[in-house]
UniProtKB/TrEMBL annotation:
Coiled coil: none
Superkingdom of this protein's organism: Bacteria
MF-aspect GO terms: peptidase activity
InterPro entries, alphabetized: Peptidase_S1_PA
Signal peptide: 1-22
Record key words, sorted: Hydrolase, Protease, Signal
One Pfam short name: Trypsin_2
Record GO biological process: proteolysis
Protein name from the UniProt record: Serine protease
Source organism of this protein record: Chitinophaga caseinilytica
Amino acid sequence: MRLYRFLLVLICGNALLQSALAQDSLNGGMYVDYQQFFSSLSFTPVAGRSPAAIQQDLKSSAARLVEDVPPATPLSLPGAGRKTLTAEAIYTRRKNSVLMVGRLKKAGTGAGISFDITGTAFAITAGGVCVTNYHVLEQIIAPREEAGRQDSAWFVITRDKRVFLINKIVSWSRNNDLAIFALDAGGARFDPLPLGKPAEEGASVYCLSHPGGYFWYFSKGIVARNAVVSGPSLATGFNPAGIKPVRMEVTADYGVGSSGGPIFDRRGNLAGIVSTTTPLGSVMRDSLGNNLGHQQMVVRDAVPVFALRQLLGLAD
């Protein structure tokens, strides 16, 4: 699910991937120049380890896991908020928890390297354990041979322009399109999102993600439907031996690149995770065979927080 491809210069340094950026906002940060956000981004490789070795370690960590099994060590998670917040407050409090997921690649000859922004993620612990979709990290969890592809490392970019390697897959579920992973944080701390309760139909929800290169895009909607979904219909693939897939359908806008983004309840707690979209439309033809069909609506499937709590081994 590629959005943008960038070219950067590989430099030497320590274990933490860092960025040094010029001023990229106006009016105290209200207006952000996202082109400038990327213009000076630089990557620092882990000392003594190549990006390819880190990628192999990532795949090895995933290969040792059993699908739908909670993490071996319980995670320290923040408590849920109880106070109803304005939409402005939810964005302000949660924007620093939302990450871009990227894939670092060789760019051919020379010193340059390129990367793609492939999705969205968010932190759930202060130490750098994060969540995204299974399909965002599928090439790590269930790698396939692709001619000409030379992925070398995966990473996240934070709102405050820090860049960290992904160094471990912690747990995953294909049926519920979830992947929990850990960062090579080097002692850095993150703003974790608190897990809320499952949202009922009609509840207001908010989505914060990166659709189509519109970074940190905030939208509002309601829960349209909660449903158990048919396994064979899943766009992410289905494991008949896995847990029963569930989805929370919402009307908040999101698109390609939003995958793995958080959906909040009115208290700013996590209510769900962006997964997929399904466009619905009519199929009509006139007497000459011309297509008169058109798109009518988009069903937006999210993974409810219930499924994440289940994967984490937490009580309902």
